[in-house]
Design a protein that fits this description.
The structure is a homodimer of 335-residue chains. By secondary structure, chain A is an alpha/beta fold. Chain A contains 12 helices and 12 strands. In chain A, helix 1 packs across helix 2. Chain A binds a DNA duplex (16 and 16 nucleotides) through helix 2 and helix 4.
DNA sequence: TTGTAGGCGTTATCAG
DNA sequence: CTGATAACGCCTACAA
């Protein structure tokens, strides 16, 4: 609770001088008085009040992290990457869960502005750009998009290359001999889902398979969605030897339904996922999937954001990190 | 970027009057001027600066959440409970990962103080109370302990009753006919691990089994620790029909080793966990375990903290939430 | 109902 | 090398 005034008084100097040593201004303070002030600060257990400092410097050293749900297994690693990196550069992180609701997103953006965060790492659920995002831009608040595209040109952002990832894993299915491949995609309005689907499509074309010959279902990126989609697929007749899922959670749901119906994985049906969340390496059979560089995405996005905040130029506006194929036991070679 | 001054000028009133409408002071402003000011605020897109406000009110409406690692599957649900509750009451949450390191814990506490958070939800890795915790108390910064005990009397805290949970599940093993039960515990200096162990011990006593007859290993609460502990157990000879693990992650590790060695679960060995993290319901066999009320713990702790902050009395200093036995497929009835 | 003035704890500017 | 002093944006007696 000691303030700069208390320190100044006790050290017999002006607050200006104390401020100088607080901020490590090398010049302008004699070694002697610096020592004295330092000692007084220790004695008084003085800690500078960042609120007061922020009021004048216009910097809070605080970032906002907006994401749908930290309890969704995809995000903790990202959050950790963000927080670690922020911490390295002397920033803290305010966590915001939007549940993919535009109103909560707006609300958080507003309080983040009111609290004068220096910037925002932003996994938006809104696309295309809506009013509150534009306001963010007008406000000149630096922000970096994370994982979710927004259909507007050249917003700084970090993504994992879903197109490439889904292409890789579909191609792997073809190489394992599969020709009849079903697909469980994400919500069709999500850009991420679209990219993954396009990667799937591209691999299909490469192997000369028409889209008409393929069963496609849509899910909500959750276990429940995978279950429902797979139930529909089963109903339509099991006219495929493999299912590519747009994320691991849906793959897990799909596998549960398949097992319940008496199908063995991968003997009867091969299944692939996307994300490589922790449980994918632990379920039986272990899921073949695509690993997203989550921690790295968080870290890279945060580094970009801090560059932006500190007025440095970005080498690239959009960074796409390549996913990595993780081959485990849920895909069987056929014929 | 508009300030209260801009609004005042444009509305032809003093900043005092504007301040009154910002803070919804019902009296002291005529309906007419209030309307006018509200309109100007809209036009100017005015948002109050919380930093400035905080400087005078001494309240930031921000909480700190200190935990070991958000990427540890135990914590996201808790964090979500904290953030949701904070949000309801108008607070934001700064996320801090300590990796169970005292130095990081100290560092975060310091910046949290400098940033004048109103209070801290705190999963400490330090026990007994060390210097920086005492400073927190001296500082009169409200805080609520979460999940980890501290050996000092009556600090406000929320815990899941590990004693009771482990008692429940051990008792369940006995009821399923098991008599030779091995135990993989947490790090012996952790109070949580101690409580769970005591619950195990108590059930043993209740069923007349001596501690000497029981194989006990210690792990680090991670998958690797479960693997290592189980490897040691196997080496000592498989003199048990069931293993109770102090958390799910170690149970998963233990199960992997058992499977690798050719044992079937639960036919050859029954395994139980503790925590009920998401993957426990998805691995094969599904793990019988004890569900911790994570989200609720976060929510309850945050409500306590906010009471503390707002000067209300706490009905209870320590709240223990009862875990819930979750029976799945990793335990077999014997004889 | 409205306004004036002082202060919150810092930093920044400019003199000495 | 050191120190007044004026901001920063807002709240809050106290006056009018």
């Amino acid at each position: 609770m000691a303030t700069i005034k208390d320190v100044a008084r006790k050290a017999n100097v002006s607050i200006t001088t104390v401020s100088r040593v607080i901020n490590n201004k090398t010049e302008g303070v004699s070694e002697e008085t610096r020592e004295r002030i330092l000692k007084v600060m220790q004695d008084l257990n003085y800690q500078p009040n960042r609120i007061a400092r922020g009021l004048v410097t216009k910097r809070t050293n605080t970032l906002g992290l907006i994401l749908p749900d930290i309890a969704n297994p995809f995000f903790p690693e990202i959050a950790r990457g963000v927080e670690d990196t922020a911490n390295i550069y002397g920033y803290n992180v305010i966590l915001c869960n939007t549940d993919d609701r535009t109103d909560k997103e707006e609300l958080y953006i507003n309080v983040l502005k009111e609290k004068c965060v220096d910037g925002i790492v932003f996994t938006s659920s809104v696309n295309p750009v809506s009013e509150h995002i534009k306001q963010l831009m007008d406000y000149k608040m630096p922000f970096v998009l994370l994982d979710r595209y927004m259909d507007i040109d050249h917003l700084p952002g970090v993504y994992s290359d879903g197109y490439d990832g889904m292409y890789q894993i579909t191609r792997y299915l073809f190489e394992m001999g599969h020709r009849d491949i079903a697909y469980i995609g994400g919500p069709s309005l999500s850009a991420t889902a679209k990219h993954r689907y396009e990667g799937f499509e591209y691999a299909l074309r490469e192997y000369g398979v028409g889209l008409d010959d393929v069963l496609i279902e849509e899910g909500n990126y959750k276990i429940s969605g995978g279950k429902e989609a797979m139930a529909r697929l089963v109903e339509k007749g099991m006219d495929f030897t493999a299912v590519a899922c747009a994320n691991d959670l849906m793959a897990v749901g799909a596998m549960e339904v398949l097992k319940d119906k008496g199908y063995r994985i991968p003997e009867d049906v091969s299944v692939t996922g996307f994300d490589d969340i922790q449980l994918s390496g632990l379920i039986e059979p272990k899921l073949t999937t695509v690993a997203q560089p989550c921690y790295e995405m968080g870290a890279v996005a945060t580094r970009m954001l801090i560059k932006l905040i500190e007025g440095q130029a970005l080498e690239e506006q959009e960074i796409k990190l390549k996913p990595r194929l993780v081959i485990r036991n849920s895909v069987k070679r056929v014929i």
